[in-house]
Structures are given as structure tokens and as C-alpha cells.
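COURSE: Structural Biology Practicum
ASSIGNMENT: Worksheet 4, Part C
STUDENT ID: 0417
INSTRUCTIONS: Below are two proteins. For each, the amino acid sequence is given first, followed by its C-alpha cell string. Answer the questions at the end about the second protein only.

PROTEIN I
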Amino acid sequence: MVEMIKLNAEAREEFGKGAARRIRRAHKIPAVMYVNGGEPKHITLPGHESMLALRQANALLSIQLPDGTEQLALPKQVQRHPVTNNLEHVDLLMVFRGERVTVQIPVIITGEPEGEVLINTERTEITVKAEATNIPAHIAVSIAGLDVGAQILVGDVVLPDDVELDDDAEALVVSINAAASVEDMLETAEGEEAPAEEEEPAEGDTEE
């Protein structure tokens, strides 16, 4: 289950690019909290703590608001600097205990298949519906003992209790294929390296 992380928020009353730069220079992050059908809340979050928290997929945040109340939230959109990767702005979605939310959960492949094979991973995430305070940190998919030709579809993945699939059940997650032999690799390499044969000029043709 995703760990709940507490962040202390400050009210934000200045807006615009200049205000955002001043906030970031103070090692804080401008953020907006959205709720369906309600007014968004503009806040400022602590920079370092927020960066650590948002390394986790689907981080469940407990935002301690300036008025002393607590609000649960999930990251909706995270903007990072293209060079430094530092947080520049965060959009959060307010959630509530007991509310079911749609999220993408990372897939982790575990176990070892039979023999020398090639593991082809097609999906690294699966979309599910889960209770906001009970989101899985990841979903483990075991390929232990599988042989060439085996496939695992999204619908084959075993989900935790109270987690509902919200994805294409026929989509491929992982397949086990035959590994290329040394002879095949050598033949491929020789074919790629072989120089193209030059055509001999036909009789009567002269080079200019």
C-alpha cells in the first residue's frame, strides 16, 4: 500500500511567473489543489519534502493546511525543470477517505522463466480503481517457471483485494520468447557487415 506522507502547506496569495520564481528561490513549490465541483486552493509546499514525496508513484499526500485542517490529495500533474529535474509546479487532486479513484499502478516482473529465453515486457503500468487510502504501491507479476510462448495478459494479473481492474483485459503485459542463438546472431552480423557487390560494366560500356 502507498504510504501516506504529510506536507505542511502555506497559503499563496501572489500569482504569476514572478511570484512563482520568488517561491522557488525560497526552496518552496507553488501548487494548486483541485476538487470536483469546488474552488481550487492555491498553496505553497516545502521544496525538499515535496521532491522526496513525489518520487513515489501515486503518492498519497496529507496536506496540513494553514487553517489547521487536513486534506488528502494525489498528484495530478507535476512540472519539473527540463535540465535540473527540480520541481517547478504541482497540481494536486483532493481525495477523501472511502472515495474510489482511478490510478495507474506500476507493474514489477518477478521470478525467472525456464531456460535461456527473451522476456518481452509490453506494459509497465495497469490502470485500476482503488480506495484513495488503499492504493497499491505496485503490482507484482510472476513469470517464474514460464516457458517459450507463454503470455500474461492484463486480465490474468492478480489484483489485491478491493482493487478493481479499469484497463483492457486483453492487452499484453509480458511474453516469453525464444532467445536468439549464437549462430543466428553471427549470421545476422555477417549479413549486416557484408559489402554490397559491385556490378561489372557490361561489354561496350565505358567509364567516363
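PROTEIN II
(use this one for the questions)
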Amino acid sequence: MSKLEQYTDYINAHILPFIDYNELDRSYQTAEKEYAKGILNRLHTAMLEQYGDTRLICGHGDMQEEYAVVPGVVQGKKTGEIAIALLGIDLLSSGEHCQTEFLCKYGVISQGHNDLPKALAGEITARYLPYDYCYTADISGDIHISKNKQPDGIKEILQTFQEHTAELLFEEAWDHETDMER
């Protein structure tokens, strides 16, 4: 099993189904964005655990993976709206960004999938497209982004997300069950 498969299997089983997506969307509207940062931290920690590192390399040669999905942040260029995202990066190229999965109040929404309801696709377009993006990984050889030249909203989240934690819904249920047993 590839590291990409390990990562996606892990987050699909242990993180994504247990995010409070309404809370995440509310968090995007706050100055601190605490819950969003906590979710990004969980996705980043899982990346470290499943890939074995947060450093990936673009280009030919000694490759860990040909393609990676990494956690990151997108910010709509027209609206300034922020969203946590899973970003697909082609490591065989110079870091081509090929896929975006937005984490929003509707769950995990894939950009460009034709099966999205028209209203939902329209809302994603209105809120986020076009967008700037950056990820939590350190991908050397990616010529498409510069972490120093990102919008302030993205920079602030990337600088402080590791200071935050977010409880997932199954943990809240577990804590509630444990409290009831006491």
C-alpha cells in the first residue's frame, strides 16, 4: 500500500467523518479560526504519521511518491474566504496542483466534479474560485507557490495552526459516555 493510500485511508476512517462541519464553517468566520486550525493540525499530524515525513520532493529521481494529497488552506481571491482543503500535488512534475477537496459546511467537496448539485457547485465557485493555496507540507521543487508570498489569511493560519487542537465528534461522544459512567 502506498503512503498516499495509507494517508487517505486513515483520514477517511479517523478524521473526516468526525469533523463538525457546521462548527468548521462557523470557525472560518471568526478572527481566530480556532476549530479550523485544529482540524488542519489533525490532518497535518496524520500526514506526518502516514507519509513518515512532512517533506516531499518534486521532480525525477529518488521519489517517495509520484502524487501526494496534503492538507492546506485555500483563500478565495475575490471574497477572501478561507477553507481548509486537501490538495493533490503531482510530485513527478514541478508540483502541479491537480485536485482540491474543500472542507466546508457540506463536508468534503471535490472541486470540478460534475456530479455536484448545481447550487452547491455555484456556492463553492462564488466563495472560493479562483483561489490562492498553500499546504502544510514542505515540498521542495514546487515552483507554483511561495509560502512567503501568500495572502495574509493563509500565512496566519499556516504560522499558528500547530498551536491548536480540535475535538472530533467521536471524541465528544466518548467523553460524554465516560462522564455518564462516572
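ANSWER KEY EXCERPT:
Q1: The chain has six helices and seven strands.
Q2: Confidence is low (pLDDT under 50) at residues 176-182.
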